[in-house]
Design goal:
Oligomer: homodimer
Helix content of chain A: 40-55%
CATH superfamily of the largest domain in chain A: Type I PLP-dependent aspartate aminotransferase-like (Major domain)
Strand content of chain A: 5-15%
Largest sheet of chain A: 7 strands, mixed
Largest interface: A-B, 152 and 153 residues
Number of helices of chain A: 14
Number of domains of chain A: 2
Strand order of the largest sheet of chain A: 2-8-7-6-5-3-4
Mean pLDDT of chain A: 96
């Protein structure tokens, strides 16, 4: 290892900038879409006994970039996130360079203050007067922590003595809620049977009357309802549950009211669309993924709690005095409130990005996403061979192609989607809506313009027509 | 936002390299050690309504780097990790640039294969014949998942129906084990009272006879022992529990045998020191933090399971067909085995770093850490005013200064440590060993040389003498 190998050199900049340039070129393939055997034959992934040179690393790095899916490409619509933003990228570089851990103020002074500032800001946007919060390891983890706070509130002795002799707790989410609620019920020891999935309407929204009925039924069976999780932006349809009605039912039954805004939380930044989250202020907790519609590099998830005190009460344990010292600035330490010990600085990238775009930049971005989604919906409506599969609520557009020649519409659409990927033209995901396969277009890349949406549909229809013979 | 602001420019390289250069200069302060009020007055952390320019971001970035603690400085001994390595840093940059998520092979093809390759490699180093594994969000998270697998093995119905009518489970760790075991007992709904903390010997190792006795006692009380967590490298003393004896007790009582190698896992890479983990091959699960002694940027934690199948069985849920498609390369997807949905690529940085240093480079690094720790221990033994507070087991050296003038030795050592930080000379942590405060020096920075250790003790003794008047 020579001295020069301790420093970044020009190669990184060239590599990064050429990657970004290629992403912007419509001719660049979004994906090579190679099966594992084929990919393995192209990259040597074995690890050596003896070390290698930096030059050899750069070869692998080039292969990594070449064969990875281009999630920053404007024809990448496959997940609930997409795109590249320089401030977020810079934030990751600097956080990694300074490489500290969020547990104590002493070792992460600036990052701790930044995280606190962001929690204050996000809390005030939600209308919470005395909020607390925490950057967590993802939306799933946020849902887990919210459910855990609710559990420990319902059974204060569970922290010290477990479920011994307690009534069976029951949690409620919609049938289109994220699967992490079931993981949470599993982790916490409730059991998946004690997570009731409430019916949704045709837009994918939880039906409040069904929720009220299910709660009553559970109570009659001797179960103890304790938690309701509403979704702001479901994974498939992008639907927003009716928070006002759910909040009122939750209050009536003294349930913890959590809102999973992993996808749709960012919508509160838009004056035009935040009505979708009306009465969010009544939520007891709220999870928000800034790595989705705010375009930050993964992971950037924030759990907000309306009233201070729950995180510490739920998560603090004994045996931590080797790391958390009251002597210093212990009151500022975030670690005791967290389920993690070592924790990355995810706040810096969000802070820098927010500083760069400002409140108004993000509001404008959300509005643009909705406009582009409406534009895509309009193309679907105007095109005879396309069929809208669900009313559009936000940034997700679910549709399918109706072939002339094939009777198996599902298989045709799966093949169509696969063919688009195989050609590297576009990567877009699918889901099952009831019995049918739907292609799910997600508008989440801030660099998208109408021409990118049009190009996607051009590719799709051309490809479909070539298959529909 | 102009076009040029989509690209990295020379400023990043200059900033990064000047930061690295400053870290290497002994005159550079490790920390400014400012209280929150003072730090707040130096950096404006408010977020604007309107956006800002990239130039303004760079001002904050410079302040961030200036006021953050320099964890890559050779006088930073405060945590169980330290230092900077270029291959790991490059890995973070590239992972963030390509920004994908580890849940499906389709969207993370290269990263998925890399993660699998690393699991295979680490599993084979541990001697596991049919291993599985997962990069997780930290050592705490790995301990949680291991305990959860054990719980679901003991109570197969808990996943669907919770703890209903089940016996009270009991888990066992040493009294010097990490606090995350208590967090895990809390999360999983066991209750902290059902985590028994077993006595340790003078080196900080779990006493097997005490473990056997505690298991018997629990069974006699009608509890159901199910899990024992041994520690390979405790947080304060760096002690290694006797795995051979614990494995045998675990087998006898049919307990899940987990090893927390968050700190000491890396020691298996050294032929000279891996005897400390003798019989690791008998562990059912093992957690290893590559962001500690392997020097990767945070977080890089790997959970290894000796036998395939547990992760999927424990963690899989329903309602995931919108993301996990059997149609494609579903069998390659890592997501269903994970507690996360979106997950960062932590494998790339470890892969690149391993490629760069090789097996032998890491073995040599571990040996060097032990030698430097022995060197530090030797200084303590040879210096009349210093006292060794616990026998050294690995890379942690616990000691204190014995003042001439003060009767409150604890307070003196706290003041001494604080004064070193206030001057920015060195950052080193302390812990309580029984009744006494000990300064805990951790050797975890691969750039350390003997002269850095000597310099640390010079600073410490000079500072102590100036206080000891």
């Amino acid at each position: 290892m020579s001295d020069v190998e301790s420093f970044l050199d020009q190669r990184v900049i060239d590599l990064v900038n050429s990657y970004i340039t290629s992403n912007a070129n419509p001719e660049t393939k979004v994906t090579h879409h190679l099966p594992p055997e084929k990919l393995r034959s192209k990259i040597d992934l074995t690890l050596p006994e003896n070390g290698s040179s930096l030059d050899e690393l750069y070869l692998t790095i080039e292969q990594y970039l070449n064969f990875s899916v281009r999630t920053g490409h404007r024809q990448f619509f496959n997940q609930l996130w997409s795109g590249f933003t320089l401030p977020g990228f810079l934030g990751e570089i600097i956080a990694s360079l300074a490489n500290t851990s969020m547990y104590t103020y002493e070792v992460a002074p600036v990052a701790t203050l930044m995280e606190k500032e962001l929690i204050k800001k996000l809390g005030s946007i939600c209308g919470f007067k005395n909020p607390e919060g925490m950057f967590v390891t993802g939306g799933s983890n946020g849902n887990l922590q919210a459910m855990m706070i609710a559990r420990n509130r319902a059974l204060p002795f569970v922290k010290s003595h477990g479920y011994k002799d307690s009534p069976e707790l029951m949690a409620f989410v919609s049938e289109e809620a994220h699967y992490s609620f079931e993981k949470s019920a599993n982790i916490l020891g409730l059991g998946s049977a004690n997570l009731r999935k409430i019916k949704t309407d045709d837009r994918g929204r939880m039906i409040p009357e069904e929720l009220a009925m299910a709660i009553e039924q559970s109570s009659q069976k001797g179960k103890a309802p304790f938690f309701v999780g509403a979704t702001a932006g479901t994974t498939v349809k992008g639907a927003f549950d009716p928070l006002t009605e759910i909040a009122s039912i939750a209050r009536q039954h003294d349930l913890w009211f959590h809102v999973d805004g992993s996808l749709g939380g960012t919508v509160v930044l838009s004056a035009r669309h935040r009505h979708l989250l009306r009465d969010l202020v009544k939520a007891d907790s709220f999870i928000w993924n800034a790595h989705k519609l705010m375009g930050l590099p993964l992971i950037c998830s924030i759990l907000l709690i309306r009233e201070k005190g729950h995180l510490l009460q739920t998560n603090s344990v004994t045996g931590t005095d080797y790391i958390f010292h009251d002597e210093a600035y212990g009151a500022c330490d975030l670690g005791p409130m967290s389920l993690q010990c070592g924790r990355r600085v995810d706040a810096l990238k969000l802070w820098l990005s927010w500083k760069y775009y400002g409140d108004l930049g993000y509001a404008e971005r959300v509005d643009r996403f909705f406009e582009l989604a409406a534009f895509a919906e309009d193309i679907v409506s105007r095109t005879p061979s396309l069929e809208l599969m669900a009313p559009r609520s936000s940034v997700n557009v679910c549709f399918r192609y109706i072939p002339n020649t094939s009777e198996d519409i599902d298989k045709f659409n799966l093949d169509l989607r696969e063919e688009l990927a195989r050609k590297g033209k576009a990567l877009v995901n699918f889901a099952r809506l009831g019995e049918n396969v739907a292609i799910r277009l997600v508008i989440a890349n801030h660099e998208l313009a109408r021409e990118d949406i049009s190009r996607f549909f051009d590719y799709l229809i051309q490809t479909a027509e070539s298959l529909d013979r």
